[in-house]
Design brief:
This is SRPBCC family protein. The chain has 133 residues and is α+β, with helices and mostly antiparallel strands. The chain has helices at 14-21, 105-132, and strands spanning 2-10, 35-40, 44-49, 54-63, 67-72, 80-89, 92-101. The protein has a single domain, classed as 2-Layer Sandwich (Alpha-D-Glucose-1,6-Bisphosphate, Chain A, domain 4), CATH 3.30.530. It has a seven-stranded antiparallel beta sheet with strand order 1-7-6-5-4-3-2, covered by helices on one side. β4 (54-63) and β5 (67-72) form a beta hairpin.
Length: 133
């Protein structure tokens, strides 16, 4: 399993960050511009990546104020898991976003850069959105 991680700290209460991430309807705001045809509920999201693939994801596990784990709702091009881990330190929330992907050697060469970029984009978007609020 290949892992791609990104971390940030936000000057917001843990519950506010968790509540945002626990609802898949909010995740559209975290995605890059090449995400199209987004539809979501609190528990699932479906979208396409421009010129690449269609994905269906679901929130598999929620641990209040600690973690949100996301897995494919349908068979993806490769096995995938996304996980938001949260912890509170003094006056800010620390966030670790992990993308785990089972990639063949060829897919690793093609997808490693974009997956790391996605991890960084999502955490930076979360930081920007919650700091405006």
């Amino acid at each position: 399993m290949n892992t791609f991680t990104s971390t940030i700290s936000i000057n917001k209460p843990l519950t506010e960050v968790y509540d945002f991430l626990a609802d898949f309807n909010n995740h559209r705001q975290l995605m890059p511009d090449n995400i199209q045809e987004w539809t979501s509920t609190r528990d699932e999201a479906r979208f396409s990546i421009q010129n690449m693939a269609k994905l269906a994801l679901k929130i598999e596990e929620r641990v209040p104020n600690q973690m949100v784990r996301i897995i494919p709702a349908e068979k993806p091009p490769f096995d995938l898991e996304l996980k938001w881990s949260l912890s509170f330190n003094n006056d800010h929330t620390d966030i670790l976003f992990t993308i785990g992907a089972e990639l063949s050697m060829m897919m690793k060469m093609l997808a490693s850069g974009p997956l790391q970029k996605l991890a960084d984009h999502e955490t930076q978007s979360l930081f920007n959105i919650l700091n405006k609020a």
